[in-house]
């Protein structure tokens, strides 16, 4: 293992898409941002230097951060933001993971332009559990806004309304030919015939779960969230924000000059508005002579499911299984020490006195909550408060283990949609085996929520529609080869059950990875206490940790 050093200079740079030029906050002037490449076992040092007016933090999404929570990155959770003119070096080691993850800004909506791939190669002398691909290509999905997304969310939080939606989806930063004024900004994946390519698919979009498909080509899924899975074939994938999926693309043997469309478009089950557009790229077979005569558009288009295809999504999600072999075992907790039942969903806040609000149900503000608690970010970093024993007045440890307002999640919504505010955490003893069932509420309509847990992978042991039944559903849990991920969807109008072993001491954020839901409060934090061994304790913070 070696140490890899990166410098991320946060700078402004103008980019033009859809004939709109905007000054984007970038890493090293790149959009999307640069690749971070490491081998399993390597230490990574990333010096982030802030040259812009905005406060910045970067999160290494899905990196386990074993006892290195100071490098995790969510603003006001594990660190204060890096202010203008300041620098902070993230220091972490990649342990027991290989595949694709992503890094992204973790403050406000700055992820819209600050994101990039994390590529974790197997250790030297170790191979993939599938045929070595001819080439490996990261494909990042994102969103383009013609206006500043920071202004979009600021305005939405002020008025209480749903935010304006993006103007385009992008593939590697490019909207593609289906949008006005965008044909020249099309991603082209150039391939040779008869080869196997590894596509590292990453959804970095702010607010949209996306379907992805390439015309006339079947993809073989081999890895999700930097964990190998049992390979399976799919014509269309679903990737939620925060999820990564590695797929093999086998190119056809003889197709000189052929081109095919690839599409990514939204899955959306909830209320309100969303960007119902499609981003397209080209799969281009290179001519053996090296001359490409690509002038006309591809003729074949893939067919994406309808935007509200919840049944498709449930079936697709169930196909993921851990490899669970001798080399890559699935260490699924077989027994449970603590069971949690969280309701996740949208609700409302009352409109402040003497103002008018544009949220749902007449003069309210949109809110979102877990167990009816809409999480309020503190103005200092929780991990620091916790580490130095200064939680007083910053956070409490009484996050409810079960819903405080029980109701039938599939039945008639309650009259009262109001949620309460709080900065509440759950405290877990080291090595607690946790089962968490997350039940989507339908208070403001059924909506799917990609829930992300920091500092951990978890096993998705069950999922279903309707109300979770604690007497019946656990008998169908998969405790043998469930998929291991860091982000999993709570199905629209249903539930998901996960298990994890709390073996990583620290303070770990959990939230919906649709940024608008996070901004509305669909977030909370777990505290995992130190273990007995020296390497099971949170070390003191690095000296350059930013101050609030
Ligand atoms: Cu990718 Cu807390 O996020
Ligand atoms: Cu959500």
Automatic annotation (TrEMBL):
One of its GO terms (biological process) is lignin catabolic process. Pfam families: Cu-oxidase, Cu-oxidase_2, Cu-oxidase_3. It comes from the Eukaryota. One of its GO terms (cellular component) is apoplast. CDD domains: CuRO_1_LCC_plant (cd13849), CuRO_2_LCC_plant (cd13875), CuRO_3_LCC_plant (cd13897). Its EC number is 1.10.3.2. Keywords: Apoplast, Copper, Glycoprotein, Lignin degradation, Metal-binding, Oxidoreductase, Repeat, Secreted, Signal. Residues 10-123, 136-287, 399-530 form the Plastocyanin-like domain. Its main location: secreted. This is Laccase. It comes from Populus euphratica (Euphrates poplar).
């Amino acid at each position: 293992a070696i140490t890899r050093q990166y410098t991320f200079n946060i700078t402004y740079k103008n980019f033009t898409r859809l004939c709109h030029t905007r000054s984007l906050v970038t890493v090293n002037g790149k959009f999307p941002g640069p690749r971070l490449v490491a081998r399993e076992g390597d230490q990574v040092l990333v010096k982030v230097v802030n040259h812009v007016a905005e406060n910045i933090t970067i999160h290494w999404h899905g990196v386990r951060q074993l006892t290195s929570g100071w490098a995790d990155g969510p603003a006001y959770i594990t660190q204060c933001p890096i202010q203008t003119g300041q620098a902070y070096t993230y220091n972490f080691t990649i342990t027991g993971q290989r595949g694709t993850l992503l890094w992204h800004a973790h403050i406000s909506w700055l992820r819209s332009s600050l994101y990039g791939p994390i590529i974790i190669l197997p250790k030297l002398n170790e191979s993939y559990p599938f045929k070595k691909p001819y080439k490996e290509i990261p494909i990042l999905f994102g969103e383009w806004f013609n206006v500043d997304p920071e202004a979009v969310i600021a305005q939405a939080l002020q008025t209480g309304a749903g935010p304006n939606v993006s103007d385009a989806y992008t593939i590697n930063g490019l909207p593609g030919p289906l949008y006005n004024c965008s044909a020249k900004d099309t991603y082209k994946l150039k391939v040779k015939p008869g080869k196997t390519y590894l596509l590292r698919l990453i959804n970095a979009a702010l607010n949209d779960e996306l379907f992805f498909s390439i015309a006339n080509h079947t993809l073989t899924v081999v890895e999700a969230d930097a964990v190998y899975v049992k390979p399976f074939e799919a014509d269309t994938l679903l990737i939620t924000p925060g999820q990564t999926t590695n797929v093999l693309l086998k190119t056809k043997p003889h197709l000189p000059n052929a081109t095919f469309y690839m599409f990514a478009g939204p899955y959306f089950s909830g209320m309100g508005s969303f960007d119902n557009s499609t981003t397209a790229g080209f799969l281009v077979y290179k001519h053996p002579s090296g001359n490409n005569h690509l002038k006309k558009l591809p003729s074949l288009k893939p067919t994406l499911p309808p935007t509200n295809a919840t049944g498709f999504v449930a079936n697709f999600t169930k196909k993921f299984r851990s490899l669970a072999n001798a080399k890559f075992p699935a260490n699924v907790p077989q027994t449970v020490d603590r069971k949690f039942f969280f309701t996740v969903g949208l609700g409302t806040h009352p409109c402040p006195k003497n103002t008018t609000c544009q949220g749902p149900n007449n003069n309210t503000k949109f809110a979102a909550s877990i167990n009816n608690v809409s999480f309020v970010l503190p103005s200092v970093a929780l991990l620091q408060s916790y580490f130095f024993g200064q939680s007083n007045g910053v956070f409490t440890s009484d996050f409810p283990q079960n819903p405080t307002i029980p109701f039938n999640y599939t039945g008639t919504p309650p009259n009262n949609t109001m949620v309460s505010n709080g900065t509440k955490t759950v405290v877990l003893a080291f090595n607690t085996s946790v089962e968490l069932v997350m039940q989507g509420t339908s208070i403001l309509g059924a909506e799917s929520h990609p829930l992300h847990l920091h500092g951990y992978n978890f096993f998705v042991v069950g999922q279903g529609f309707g109300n979770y039944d604690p007497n019946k559903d656990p008998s169908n849990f998969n405790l043998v080869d469930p998929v291991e991920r860091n982000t999993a969807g709570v199905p629209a109008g249903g539930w998901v059950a996960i298990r994890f072993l709390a073996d990583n001491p620290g303070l770990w954020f959990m939230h919906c990875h649709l940024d608008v839901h996070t901004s509305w409060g669909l977030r909370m934090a777990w505290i995992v206490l130190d273990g007995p061994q020296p390497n099971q304790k949170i070390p003191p913070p690095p000296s350059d940790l930013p101050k609030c």
